[in-house]
Amino acid sequence: MAAKAATDHGNSVKDDKLYEDLRRQGASKEKAARIANAKAAGTLKHKSTELDDRSKAELYAEAKKIGIEGRSTMSKAELVKAIRSH
């Protein structure tokens, strides 16, 4: 059975398939459109590559923002791993 083609979401969404995949995963319409458009424009930076370049303080702030428990006792490597798996 062939996969269903992505619906055309007009000019506001540049990558319809990615948009629909993100929406199915629970992303809001705004977040899905933002990610799909950034990927289509080639400006999407993957979080996994930029995390290694951040300081421990920056990683701690990110962990706090997304609500990771036990962050105050984590090493830089542990913070990176926790953020990636969140």
Give an overview of the whole structure.
It contains five helices and no strands. It is mostly helical. The chain has two domains: 11-41, no CATH class; 47-85, no CATH class. The protein has helices spanning 16-24, 29-41, 47-51, 56-66, 76-85. Helices cover 56% and strands 0% of the residues. The radius of gyration is 16 Å and the shape is elongated. It comes from Sphingomonas spermidinifaciens. One of its GO terms (biological process) is DNA-templated transcription termination. This is Rho termination factor.
- Quickly count the domains: 2
Helix-strand category:
mainly alpha
Number of helices: 5
Amount of beta strand: under 5%
Count the strands? 0
Task: Write down the secondary-structure element order.
Answer: HHHHH
InterPro entries: DUF7218, Rho-like_N, Rho_N_sf
Organism: Sphingomonas spermidinifaciens
Pfam family, one: Rho_N
GO biological process, one term: DNA-templated transcription termination
Summarize the structure.
56% of the residues lie in helices and 0% in strands.
Supply database-style keywords:
0% strand, 2 domains, mainly alpha, 86 residues, single chain, 5 helices
Element layout with pairings:
Elements: H1 16-24, H2 29-41, H3 47-51, H4 56-66, H5 76-85
Domain Rho termination factor-like N-terminal: 57-83
Pfam families: DUF7218, Rho_N
InterPro entries: DUF7218, Rho-like_N, Rho_N_sf
